[in-house]
Amino acid sequence: MTSTVSGPGADVVAAAAGDFARELTRDSLLRLARREIAAVHVPGFCDRRIAAEAAGKAVRHKALGNYHKKYTSTVGRVHLPHIDTAWNPELTAEYHDVALASIQEVRALFAPYLSPVDHVRLLLQECWPAGAELLRLRGRPCFVGALRVFRPDTSVFLPHNDRIEQETDAPEAAGVTEQLVANIYLQVPEEGGDLQLWRREPTHAESRTILEVEGLDPATVEPPDHVIHPQAGDLIVFSSRMLHAVTPARGGHRVGMAAFIACKGPDEPLRYWS
Ligand SMILES: O=C(O)CCC(=O)C(=O)O
Ligand SMILES: [Fe+2]
Question: Signal sequence: where (predicted)?
Answer without folding.
Answer: none
